[in-house]
Request: fold
Amino acid sequence: MSTSTHHLTTTLLDWFRHYGRDLPWRNTRDPYAIWLSEIILQQTRVQQGMAYWERFMRHWPTVEMLADATEDEVLREWQGLGYYSRARNLHKAAQQIVTLGAFPRTIEDIKKLAGVGDYTAAAIGSIAFGLPAAVVDGNVYRVLSRYFGISTPINSTVGKKEFTALAQSLLPDDEAAAFNQAIMDFGAIQCTPQSPRCLDCPLQESCAAHHEGQVALLPVKLKKTQVKTRRLTYIYFRCHGHTAIHRRGEGDIWQGLWEPYLIEDTPWKDFGGQLTLLRKDVRHVLTHRVLLADFYLCETKTLPTLPPDYIWIGEDDIERYALPRLIEILLESVSPADSSHLQGRS
Reply:
């Protein structure tokens, strides 16, 4: 290990001992609790994810209990976190672990769990079992690219290999968990994407990007996939205290979640009753796409004919179903039913 790499490793470990974040899953070696935290923190900020981790641990304190839950129950507890494939994979992986009889203890076996890739396997393996596997996430890319002045795009095949090898070369075998957590925390607290704290950085003197004025230019990323826009129209039916919803299918956003009647790329249909525009052009941003949605309320005195996959439920029961955040916004726009008004129409 060269002088600069040794300095980086020792400095990060020392920094972590003083400034590392006190997170609840760091006070245990339980692989279930650690795995759960890593899945929740994929694409989620720590502050938001912590509340979900605590909620899951209260509801399902063991992997066996999570495996016994239904997918709907898991999706409902996940509601609001987005990227719902994580929740489905979490549930599937819990069942895999129960079938195995114990949590897998090698990187290759951990990677066989649903929803677990290289980064997540390294994080679980190093923290729960002390395995010498380096993590490489956005924080790690940023710290390494700036410190060593590396301009290879981090989202290229070459870049991923280069940074993975570099991170592994820095990893002290006997302190893998501490180093992995140190470099992630350092990127989240000190070497941040915007306005990094360079003036009080313990790596300032040896940081290539700082010396060369390249901090704002690193890391380098290839251009993202073009963002597409989709237009959606939702109709919230109200008929004698009931409303209609259906479960979204596979191969699209929000797989397995529920939503009111949707019109997209299909002709508008007159369902009768009183139609009210609640909100127009509600903007909702997802990865690689922007949704623009219109919300309508349709109050009827007879049940309209809908496609067979729609079910009628009591309006008060809709909270029992896992819903996308966009539909939660729709429901916030729907005022409670005026029972006398409905009775007058029946």
